[in-house]
Structure formats: C-alpha cells, structure tokens
Amino acid sequence: MIQRIQTIYLFLAFVVTAVLPFLFPLWTLNDTKEYYFMQNQVYVVLLGLSTTLTVLSIISYKKRQNQFVLGRLNIVLNLSLLGLFVYRSLNISGETVLVSEKGIGMFLPIVAIVLLVLANKAIKKDEDLVKSVDRLR
C-alpha cells in the first residue's frame, strides 16, 4: 500500500535503479566520451534484476516476510553491482594515459542500498507491530 513508508522507500529505490542510470554516466574518459551502464550487458542485467526485485517487493505488500527477503536479495545484488563498478573503474584509471572521472552513476547503487535498508527497517517494524498485536488476542 502506498501510505506505508517502506513503499515510498521502495519506490525511490525503483527510481534510482530504473530511471537515473539512463541520465547519469558511470564515468567519463578524456573529458569527451561518457560511459553509461548500457554499454555493458552485465550492468544491464544486474540493474534489471534490481529493478524487478524492487517492483516485486512493492507488489507483495501483504506478505511482509517475502518483502523483507526480497529487500535483502536486492541489497546483495546492489552490493555486487557496486563492486563491479569499483573494479571496472580501478581498471580503467590504471590502464593508460586515459584520464577517467567518476560520474554520479557510480554512486547510484549506494543510494539504492541506503533506501532498501530503510525500507527493510520499516518492514521489520511493521512485522514486529503485527506480532505484538497478535500476542494480545
């Protein structure tokens, strides 16, 4: 449901993984050539999976445990994507005389991870509230 705070966090994570990578480059080589995520199939697949997991998590609002597990899987997926970005950027900057500048797109997985952690905290808080109410019956 949209009035829950975790849905807002998940929607923002969806925007970060689905919309913003098209707008911001990962890095720029020699101040002219911008490198976007679409130029590597692995990045496309991982961002697509992250977006899909976020949408599935938003849709499964009635099953909080499944939503929590999907959030954790999404965090692990974004951590691996961040690791690939860092690995690739370290390889580019040390290769030749190419001057590489890191773009804002490199930090999008970090923003997504923070939003997913906040969503998981809110999901856990809801689950604890429901369990405490069930105990009183």
Total number of beta strands: 3
**Straight-line N-to-C gap:** 25 Å
Shape summary? elongated
Give the ordered list of helices and strands.
HHEEHHEH
Helix fraction, binned, reads: over 70%
Which band does the percent of strand residues land in? 5-15%
Radius of gyration: 18 Å
Sheet having the most strands: 3 strands, antiparallel
What does this structure look like?
The chain is mainly alpha-helical and 137 residues long. 70% of the residues lie in helices and 7% in strands. The protein is built from five helices and three strands. A hairpin with a 3-residue loop joins strand 1 and strand 2 (33-35). Helix 1 packs antiparallel against helix 5, helix 3 packs antiparallel against helix 4 and helix 4 runs antiparallel to helix 5 (108-136).
